[in-house]
């Protein structure tokens, strides 16, 4: 790999090495300040510490050596201009405004093209538009790039060269090929929409007959599938083409506004999106199952009724599922959850009906905020699920919004469950270590004697152990 070299040329040193005829120059000339040069040229202008703030004095190109970032903002170039020639390992080309350039880019070390602006680069006056040399990788990340030419993007030489496209728009128009000469072509959070039946990998991007593809279009995709349809930049405004599902990638919001015909044993939503929000816009009835691999919040002004005959109707694997001001009814062999996920209910109305079990969660992975279990009554919070009065996993669980005036005897902290926490709180009060508030005192006085004492602790403990349940 080429290593960034900063060449320091001291004017005073140059004078000392020159003819002794210059030895009589004033001392301030001999001590003139040093200029730093960088392995980067813009239209054959060597970038240095003196010109890097505005390399061509036109406001289009700026270089920041501390971050190795070349910023482009504006139009430039004409016939066969060598716009960029770089040997900087780790160079970032940041396109901050829409920029139309005519000419070539030469990268002799690892480079990333990124930025909020669209880069349009064109060159038909020499064989290539973007050339990658040596053992080098080109990354196009979070970018919008349009390249055209005879060979628009090409890897030169026998050394290993890679191209990575990550969450970007990339359009390539070539008269001979589009992307050629790379040992590896890798896409991350992207999909090729043109040509159809594309083949990519070692060598470049090909048509299905293994000829080089000349017109290529790559767009972002979002790790989200609706009814087996991958959500992309092209379809996110109306994923299924029926106005029922949309996705906002900037805010990671999946909106659902209506019903669709769907089989109960087929996957409806599959998500690997981190911090996804599912917005229930209207009252919705759906069939199918949901699989979530990233933290997800279900919320909205509408409601969701969903059923599946697959093992888990709404499954959250190794992530947190939050119902926040939501109204959801789910039915399946298991209605909601998994043994690897956590569930939180915030001010929500939830009905979970399972052929086997209503709710599943990993140990310690169940939480209620401004909500409470209203059925079964009484209920017990177990390690992985909710238990009914027979100490069996509950097949039906109903969670409602908590009312400040509503409480269950023995549920001292008001979380909807009677468990070891309630015993601890009551015991601390009886021992005088931490007194209960008036509201908690009323909940702890399970025998209705008018005071909280050892008898109440015994009754709560008997309930938790399943020996004698409180009614």
Model description:
It is a single chain. By secondary structure, this protein is mainly beta. It is built from 5 helices and 40 strands. The protein has 3 domains: 7-221, no CATH class; 227-406; 407-471, Type 1 dockerin domain. Mean pLDDT is 90; it is low at 1-32. The chain starts with 6 loop residues before the first strand and ends in a 7-residue tail after the last helix. GO terms for molecular function: hydrolase activity, hydrolyzing O-glycosyl compounds. This is Dockerin domain-containing protein.
In terms of topology, how is this protein built?
Blueprint: E1 7-9, H1 11-17, H2 27-30, E2 35-42, E3 45-48, E4 61-64, E5 69-72, E6 82-86, E7 91-95, E8 99-102, E9 104-107, E10 111-114, E11 118-132, E12 137-141, E13 144-155, E14 162-166, E15 169-174, E16 179-182, E17 184-188, E18 190-194, E19 199-201, E20 203-206, E21 215-226, E22 229-232, E23 245-248, E24 253-256, E25 267-271, E26 276-280, E27 283-287, E28 289-292, E29 296-299, E30 303-307, E31 312-316, E32 320-324, E33 327-337, E34 342-346, E35 349-360, E36 366-369, E37 371-375, E38 380-381, E39 386-387, E40 396-401, H3 420-430, H4 438-444, H5 454-464
Parallel strand pairs: 5-7, 6-9, 7-10, 8-11, 9-11, 10-12, 11-13, 12-14, 13-15, 13-16, 14-17, 24-26, 25-28, 26-29, 27-30, 28-31, 29-32, 30-33, 31-33, 32-34, 33-35, 34-36
Antiparallel strand pairs: 1-2, 2-3, 2-6, 4-5, 15-21, 16-20, 18-21, 19-20, 21-22, 21-25, 23-24, 35-40, 37-40, 38-39
């Amino acid at each position: 790999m080429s290593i960034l070299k900063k060449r320091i040329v001291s004017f005073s040193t140059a004078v000392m090495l020159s003819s002794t005829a210059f030895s009589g120059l004033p001392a301030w000339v001999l001590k003139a300040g040093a200029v730093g040069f960088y392995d980067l040229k813009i239209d054959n202008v060597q970038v240095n510490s003196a010109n890097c703030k505005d390399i061509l004095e036109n406001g289009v190109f700026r270089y920041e050596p501390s971050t190795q970032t070349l910023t482009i903002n504006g139009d430039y170039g004409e016939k066969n201009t060598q716009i960029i020639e770089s040997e900087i390992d780790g160079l970032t080309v940041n396109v901050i405004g829409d920029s139309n350039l005519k000419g070539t880019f030469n990268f002799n070390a690892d480079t990333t093209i990124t930025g909020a602006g669209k880069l349009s680069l064109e060159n038909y006056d020499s064989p290539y538009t973007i050339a990658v040399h040596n053992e080098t990788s080109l990354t196009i990340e979070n970018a919008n790039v349009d390249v055209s030419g005879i060979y628009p993007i090409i890897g030169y030489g026998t050394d290993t060269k890679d191209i990575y496209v990550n969450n970007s728009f990339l359009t390539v128009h070539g008269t001979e090929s589009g992307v050629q000469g790379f040992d590896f072509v890798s896409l991350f959070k992207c999909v090729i929409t043109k040509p159809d039946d594309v083949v990519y990998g070692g060598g470049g991007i090909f048509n299905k007959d293994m000829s080089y593809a000349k017109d290529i279009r790559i767009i972002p995709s979002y790790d989200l599938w609706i009814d087996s349809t991958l959500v992309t930049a092209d379809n996110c405004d109306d994923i299924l083409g029926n106005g029922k599902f949309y996705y906002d990638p900037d805010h990671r919001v999946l909106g659902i506004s209506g019903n669709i015909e769907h089989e109960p044993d087929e996957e409806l939503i599959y998500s690997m999106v981190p911090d996804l929000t599912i917005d229930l816009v209207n009252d919705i009835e759906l069939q199918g199952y949901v699989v979530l691999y990233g933290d997800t919040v279900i919320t909205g002004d509408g409601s969701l009724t969903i059923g599946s005959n697959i093992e888990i109707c709404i499954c959250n694997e190794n992530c947190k599922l939050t119902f926040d001001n939501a109204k959801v009814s789910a039915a399946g062999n298991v209605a909601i959850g998994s043994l690897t996920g956590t569930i939180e209910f915030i001010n929500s109305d939830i009905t979970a009906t399972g052929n086997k079990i209503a709710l599943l969660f990993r140990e310690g992975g169940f939480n209620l905020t401004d909500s409470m279990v209203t059925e079964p009554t009484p209920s017990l919070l177990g390690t992985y699920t909710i238990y009914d009065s027979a100490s069996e996993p509950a097949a039906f669980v109903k969670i409602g919004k908590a009312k400040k005036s509503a409480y269950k005897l023995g549920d001292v902290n008001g979380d909807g469950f009677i468990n070891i926490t309630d015993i601890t709180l009551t015991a601390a009060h009886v021992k005088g270590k931490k007194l209960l508030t008036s509201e908690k005192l009323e909940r702890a006085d399970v025998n209705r004697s008018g005071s909280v004492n050892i008898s109440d602790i015994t009754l709560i403990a008997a309930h938790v152990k399943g020996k004698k349940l409180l009614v």
